Amino acid sequence: MKKSLLLLALGFSTVFTTAYAATYDAVLSGDGYQFSSSFSGDTSFNDYIRFNTEGLQNIVASISGSSSKTFTFETFNLLDANKNLVATGSVLNGSPKVSFGYLESAQYGNFFLHVVGTSIGATTGYNGTITTFTATPVPEPETYALFLAGLGLAGIMGRKKKG
């Protein structure tokens, strides 16, 4: 009796809950990418959003859900081309909104955003942005010291020629 009730409950849960899993490309837009996904009813989603960087770049991404409290994000991570974890996103489900900033420079190549969540009873979805920008090198203190020493020597040489 218990087995048959358990099987019946499992059958109903698979009929009334839909799971979406997709891999798709983000759309190039300005200085980065845009992405979105939509679905209806009781759903769980497990999406991989593909994008790439050109050279040594920083990556910042954010995502927002378009529904009420019944919409939650569980995971929002940056993965490399082999789907290995690079950076973990912060999930702030009061909004519903999540984001992460990856402050280290990423090498040239392909990456994925991994987005996992659920929605209960509504037509809903999410959208987001991925911004990539070139890392600006910051001079080391030794560089400034060498520059100032050279400037001082040039000043001394100019003063000797004048006098």
UniProtKB/TrEMBL annotation:
InterPro entries: Ice-binding_C. Residues 137-161 form the Ice-binding protein C-terminal domain. Keywords: Signal. Residues 1-21 form the signal peptide. This is FxDxF family PEP-CTERM protein. It comes from Methylophilus flavus.
